Amino acid sequence: ESVKMYLCVFGETATDVVFQNLVIDGKNLPCTYAIDIHSYRVADELAYCTFDNITVENVASTWIPITIMATSAEIKNCRFTNNTGHLCGALRIGTTAYTNITDSTFSCNKSSGVGGAINCQGKLEMTDCTINGNEAAFGGILVNSAAYCKMTSCTITGNSATLGGGVAVHGETEMIDTAVYGNTGKNGADDVRMIADAAFRMSYTSSMDSVYIGKQPIGFYKDYIGN
Questions:
Q1: CB within 8 Å of 26: residues ≥ 6 apart
Q2: Interval 133-147: pLDDT, tens
């Protein structure tokens, strides 16, 4: 038994869509997508999508469990758990998409390619999110070369990859008060992997317990947890 996809929004005009208070359990049955938001923008029109209190779990995708393309999306109070895919373990953000994620968790997702939790090709902002226990070839979160990602007050831990266990930075990435520790890069870069010339900024405010001086990282260090 298999299905192509569960929920699909596709069109050539701006569309506003809300998914609220849902549980999508793929029961590990093969599928292409669980959710495919693929609304093209026309002229100045902007499609908008909201995920509010959604759980997506046990989706065994042959491609991408959740894809957001050419639209703006808000994801809040959501859980993405035990999903598998090829181009990401849970969520892929397309090159012309913007996604804002708050108070959400990505746990135990697995990608046979990149982005154990998230493959960001567009613009992503995350606040108060947890990324833990995800697996991929590159990054619990992969930020592609033309992408932008900002993480504030997030926790990224227990993820594993061949390179860049926590985050693989190819595009512009900013971390503010974000804890990145206890990840595993099997061939190197346990927590953060940066390619040459990638724009990467990391800062901590006085509210964040840290060993930093003047709110800026001293450099790479072994933290008090032993990583």
A1: 6, 34, 56, 57, 58, 59, 60, 61, 65, 83
A2: 999 998 999 999 999
Record the tokens describing residue 80, joined without a space: 């993405």
Supply the pTM of this predicted model: 0.88
Angle at 74 between CA 46 and CA 176, to 5 degrees: 120
Task: Please tell me the distance from the alpha carbon of residue 157 to that of residue 165, in angstroms, as a whole number.
Answer: 9
For residues 31 and 37, give the distance between their C-alpha atoms in angstroms, rounded to a whole number: 16
Residues with Cβ within 8 Å of residue 30, at least 6 apart in sequence: 2, 3, 60, 61, 62
Nearest to 155 by CA among 105, 95, 118, 84: 105
Q: Partners of 145 in the beta sheet?
A: none
Q: What is the DSSP letter of 219?
A: S
Q: Tell which residue, 23, 22, 3, has the closest CA to residue 82.
A: 23
pLDDT, one tens digit per residue, over 78-92 is: 999 999 999 999 999
For residues 127 and 179, give the distance between their C-alpha atoms in angstroms, rounded to a whole number. 12
Query: Taken in order 218, 220, 221, 223, is the CA torsion positive or negative?
Result: positive
Distance separating alpha carbons of residues 167 and 163, to the nearest angstrom: 9
